[in-house]
Each structure stands twice: as structure tokens, then as C-alpha cells.
What we know:
Low-confidence stretches: 1-10
Largest sheet: 7 strands, mixed
Mean pLDDT: 93
Structural class: alpha/beta
Distance between the termini: 29 Å
Number of strands: 17
Strand content: 15-25%
Number of helices: 17
Oligomer: single chain
CATH topology of the largest domain: Rossmann fold
CATH superfamily of the largest domain: Crotonobetainyl-coa:carnitine coa-transferase, domain 1
Amino acid sequence: MQVRTKSGDHKLDRPLQGIKVLDFTHTLGGFFSTMILADYGADVIKIEPPAGNTLRSDQPLINGESAYFMAINRNKRSIVVDLKQKEGKEIAIRLASEADVLVNNFRTGVMDGLGLSYKDLHALNPRLIYAHMTGYGTTGDYKNRGAQEGQIQAISGVMSLTGDPAGPPQFCGINVADLTSGSTLTQGVLAALYSREKTGKGQLIEVAMLDALMFQLTGYYGPSYLADGREHKRRGVRSPFIVPYGTFEASDGALVLVGRTEKQFEQLCHVVGRAEWLLDERFKTSKARLTHRDALEGELNKAFCHKTRDEWVSELNAKGVPTAPVNTVGEALSDPVIRDRVVIQQGHPKGGKIPGLANPVKFSNTPIDEYSASPLFGQHTRSVLAELGYTDQQVQKLVEASVVVAASA
């Protein structure tokens, strides 16, 4: 479908309109991947077990539903199926025979045990793209280990780089392993869909959380070790090769300053009223500043304490010196400039709207301009089964036999 905008241009459906995705995921990384596909317009059918997902009860609740769960399962449909029953497995197989993509993040072997392996389903639907997220991959001695966010941050080396150098290793402030692996899996699905356009064939995609997070070490630390065996230690907010770079204290709070280039350092000196630093042998060059980091950072903190954080941020950015306030999450989401870009309203299945965070990709011809919060438990069981050809009577029998759960109308 196309609609004409006020400018006369044609506005197209979302990029993945017409793509059907079966979502067998049960934790954040998988939820995040299929949420992105749903944002892009795919019809994501969330396959939930009769026991439900524990994240559905996470606080805080809005209209009795978890705000967290709604955020990472938006724009999807929910069908509740007991895959351990013969009739439930049959429903899953029928769905897979018509689907474009299947996504799961069960441990290796779980889907095989249910008769829903890639080999099983590819034979029924050669065009199916089968995306599997694991903790450590399907090969190697770690393949049967469970994988939680903290484990992956620890084993990958990322945790060793996080935190104050005088203290113990720290977890990152967000779930970088889950979110990185989810984003990476989505990239794989999109590439496989493009490949299928040329070949007509689906394929198996595997992404391990460990592999995805270690790939992020490409940003300096991995290549550095592989080149000469150099091990980097935690630096807190400091950069290993740029001074000044880090947090500094203004009169009312912290800010982050980056003085990467000589021009930026020159402008910094003028803004803080210390032009003499440009002639100081300790600070004249980037190499000298690295050597005398402590001295320069101390002088900067003395200078910054005389004005507010916002005053420094405004003055320094105006002169081309990258600076930002160290916001709390609340401060970031309350900033009118940021809020206008990232906060959207999601239609709630029980009526009304709830706030959420926008997908960051902006499409000119296929915009993501509407969002719905996650479905109620089993909200779409009846409609999805009807699309497969099940009659009302057949669905009711499945409900009575506890093969499926359907939300009350």
C-alpha cells in the first residue's frame, strides 16, 4: 500500500512489510532482535509457552503490564502454544511452513528436541531464514554452558576494561552483550533476506553472544593485543592516547571533555582563560600532555569549578571543543532536544498510550511513525490460528486441551 503525502510524494509501507517472523526468543537479546524487525514492519508472531515469561512481571507495571516487557516486545503479536504437545508442535510447524524468518535463542539442541531444528523446517520451507542466538556458539567446549549478561562481559575481556583503575572490574551500565548480540542477529537476518531475493533460498544464521561482544573489541583493544600482545588495563574515564579526555567537575556537576586535536586544545585554553598553557612545555604537544596527564587534569578541574556545567558545555561547544554534561537517564530523557528525537508514544493494548524509545533509524520513504506496546499474553492466539485455517471450534478444543492459551476477548 502507498499513500500520498502533503508534498505529493508517495509514502511507502515500512521496509519489512509483508515479512512474517516467528519469534521463539525468551530473553533480552532475542527480544531486542525481533523488536527491531517488528519496528521495520515485519509481522512478528511471538510464540509464548503456557507458563509465560518471567519478564512479563518485571517492575514497573503500567495497566498491570511490565513497562520493560512492553518496551522490548512492541509491535508484535502473541500466541501461546504448548510445544511439548503433539498439536502444539503441529501449530509451530504450520507457522514455520509459511514464515520468512524464525528467530530463537534457546540453548543448542532445544529446538532439535522439539522437532523444530533448521534441518527439519528447511525441508518444509526452503525459503526460511532460521536465526539462532546462543551464548557461546554451537561448537567448542563452552557450547552447553548457560549464558547470562555478566558472564559474557567477564569472559570476553570487556569487563576487565570497565571501571576505575584503582578498583575492581565493573559491569557496563547497560546490557551490552544482550543488546549487541541482538543487533548483530538482526543484521544477519536483513543480509539473509537480501541474499534470498537473489537466490530464492533461505539459510541458517548463528550468532553467539560472546562472538558479538568480542567483535566490539575491534575498536582498538583487540587489534592492539593481536598486533603486539599489549594488554590494556582499566582507565576509568581516561583515554589511552588522548589528553584531555574524560570527566571534569564544574561548579554543579560533571561534564565530559574531548580535546583530540591541537586546534581543540588551543580553543580549550582560550575558553578557560589559560592561554599560557600553549607555551607550557608540559602541555604544548599531544605527547607531552600524555606524559603530564595528572598535572593538566588537575589544572582543568581548578578552572572548571568557577562556572556551571551548562555554561562550560555551551561555551566549549561553541568553539568546537566536544563537551557534554554527564546526565542521569532522567536528565537525558528530560532534555527537550533529546526527548523530541527519541521519546515516542506506544499504543497500549488496554487503551491509551505509554511512552517508549524510538527506533534510531530514520527512513525517508518508509518511516517508522507508529508503535504499539507489546501484546497481552495470548492476545492473538485465535486470530493467528484462524489465519492458518483453524476453525473457531478447533481453536476452542485446543484451548480446552491446554494446547494453546487465548486471551479473553
